[in-house]
Specification:
6 strands, alpha/beta
Length: 140
């Protein structure tokens, strides 16, 4: 567990904690952590294959924000209900289905500041889609 991602009670972190699910390589998350971003990967907290409906309430309780490539989360009713019910803010890369790890890392870095800005100022729950061209669209 990344202990620095959980602030002492009553203290607001200087930036939002971003939680990346298994649709994003843990290598990308380790690189972001090395660059001193407040990030957590699913495998830091849960077992491989943990269903979304199990981890979403936990990250909602911690006030973390989901970052994923799983476009289906917005259209699967049980996952969408779990996300919204847990009070999670989510950012979904909605562009093409197949990206290399390097391509996804570049895309995340390119949009990281905007993700953090929206996380800090948007009331949860929400889902934002992020296109390959960098357009952010609120989906809920």
């Amino acid at each position: 567990m990344n202990e620095s991602s959980v602030p002492p009670s009553g203290i607001t972190p200087s930036e939002p904690t971003l939680f990346f699910d298994e649709n994003v390589s843990d290598r990308i998350v380790r690189a972001l952590r090395a660059l001193e971003h407040d990030v957590v990967h699913l495998l830091d907290e849960f077992e491989r294959g943990t269903p979304d409906v199990r981890f979403l309430p936990a990250i909602g309780d911690k006030g973390w924000f989901l970052v994923t490539q799983d476009k289906r989360i917005r259209s699967r009713p049980h996952e969408r209900r779990a996300l919204l019910g847990a009070g999670v803010g989510a950012f979904v890369f909605t562009g093409r289905a197949e990206r290399s790890t390097d391509e996804l890392a570049i895309l995340i870095l390119k949009h990281l500041q905007r993700i953090k800005e929206l996380a800090a100022k948007t009331e949860r729950p929400f889902i934002f889609g992020i296109s390959d061209r960098g357009k952010f669209e609120r989906l809920t």
